């Protein structure tokens, strides 16, 4: 069994790897910050 603790932000323009514990979860996906979760581009 493999346990995942980190993964790439679900935003296709972002290259961040986020901790699942600290990520922003929306619609079953994990994001690095509110802007990505809301569909905005990262500055």
From TrEMBL:
Pfam families for the chain: Metallothio_Pro
Residue ranges of the TM segments: none
A single GO molecular function term of this UniProt record: metal ion binding
InterPro entries: Metalthion_dom_sf, Metalthion_fam14_prok
SUPFAM superfamilies per record: Metallothionein
UniProt KW keywords: Metal-binding, Metal-thiolate cluster
Keyword Cytoplasm among record annotations: no
Keyword Metal-binding attributed: yes
Protein name: Metallothionein family 14
């Amino acid at each position: 069994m493999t346990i995942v603790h980190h993964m790439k932000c679900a935003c296709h323009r972002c290259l961040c790897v986020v901790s699942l514990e600290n990520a922003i979860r929306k619609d079953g996906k994990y994001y690095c910050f509110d802007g990505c979760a809301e569909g905005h581009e990262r500055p």
